[in-house]
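User: what does the whole thing look like in 3D?
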Amino acid sequence: MCTGITVGRHAVPEKLIKKYNLEERLIQRSEQAEKEILFMQRHRFPLLPVFYQGEVHIMSWGNRDREKNVPVAWWGELSTLQSGAWSHFSPEPAEILGSFGLERGVWFQIPQGIKGIVIHDQRQRPYIYMLLQPASHYYEVMTGYQREPVFIGEQI
Amino acid sequence: MGTSLIGHIDSDCFYVSCERIRSYGLRGVPCGVLGNQGACVIAKSYELKAYGVKVGQPIWQAKKLCPHAVYVKRDFRWYETISRQLLNLLKTLSPSVEYYSVDEMFFDASELERYFDLPLFDAAQMLQTLVQDEIGIPVSIGIAPSRTIAKLGSDSAKPFGVRVLDSDCEVFLHSQSVGELCGIGSKSERKLKEHNIRTCWDYRKADRLMIRDLLTIKGEALWWELRGEAVNPIQTQRPPHKAIARGGSCGGKTKDQDRIRAWAVRNIERLIEALDHHQVYAGQISLQIDANKTALWLGRTPLAAPSASFRTFYDAVMPMLEAAPRTHPISHMHIIAEELTWRDKVQKSLFFEEPQSPLDKLKREINQKLGRFAVRSAETLPLQEIYHDATHNYDICDISGKMCF
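Assistant: Here's the predicted 3D structure for the full assembly of 561 residues, as structure tokens:
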């Protein structure tokens, strides 16, 4: 699955950058390049930038804690979601913001964003799960992985 | 012919520049464009080049050299759009423009000064700025009395430079190796070095007849060009093709006969489309299949009459495919139409079938209306991955009118 994304610094409101201390995650691929905020699955507190209910949020990327009544996972399979298997969690659609994604060491462009679902725990805290689908031939050749995120607008 | 000044405009890292037009986030980022269905780098930005990544390098090697580079999928349809914008812009300020390749054009620069009302160098810089502002791509420009010197000038001015040269440009020609000359390959370079001709200035000073003996009339043309004589004129229209080929990678090595046949049929369909575009029929069909970048098989079948019929091509190609050795997995395949004749000049015959059947015509009309490959042979169905990805519907060779690749 996609193990990291970046989003342009300008795409995240300043108050969220301060609240979640995102300055620490700033990267720049070259001196002339735009600054990006890095969101990695391997971060101690994995987060993702999400467009949900009309505004940008920073949410927990999946859940690692078995105490919480949300799935212990990072992602959800699109076909599983469509089968209704997640319906008792009341998933809501959301859009994960991203400029570039990382898969097996290859950074690729995210054209318009990635589809995700938001699930709330017993304390109404939101968690974002990235949706995955079988990879296109191109994606599989490029990254060597058989699953790809559900991209908005097009399948790369 | 007849112009005293020839300009050469060359886009800097063209494919990447095109991607940067529509994706602001790619600006300044080390960026590679992937071809061969995502397997290798076909274009790179200067930032990526600085890490030693080369064109043709597999993605797994490139990601090691520059782990933070970003890779994007090639989109030749978009590159053509930008390329034609550049062509149209040049046509507004030059009386003749040659569409040399998707990212390079030659133009008559004799009116450039008058157009911008500036000295030549400043006018060339204005043109560079105009292209950047209007189209959004950085270009390098060379202006000289001949196209060979103009091209040397723009190549040496890269990235985003301008070089104006006259026929008496000794210092510049001293600095350019003969290997930089368009038309001098490694074999010719070796021959020239045996005669102690290492720089373009050495070439220019060499004996004309000796150059002609070594490198034929094309070498002699370069010799004249380096002296500022424009013997290779700007060509505003592409000369007729001697052959048209369609093919390329088979999406990895394969011995699967169903996939090999499917590739052959897809390439036949693409070839017929190209013949339709150029309004020609083929008198002979060749099939070349490669394994590990070496030609494994080359078959040739003359046709009974000039044709652009799917059935005729299929009947010519399939026996050649059957006859090809099956010991090695196939990596590339090309189907080549030769002995081309214009459609309006073909001799009608009572005894042979029509060059195209009603089915061919119907297929063409539907595909023109609904999109390429909307109707296609069922034999291409094993190539599902190709049809699931619309970017495979368009290739660099589908960009018509340019002189070379």
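In plain terms: Residues 4-149 of chain A form a domain with the hypothetical protein yedk fold fold (CATH 3.90.1680.10). Helices of chain A lie at 14-19, 78-83, 137-143.
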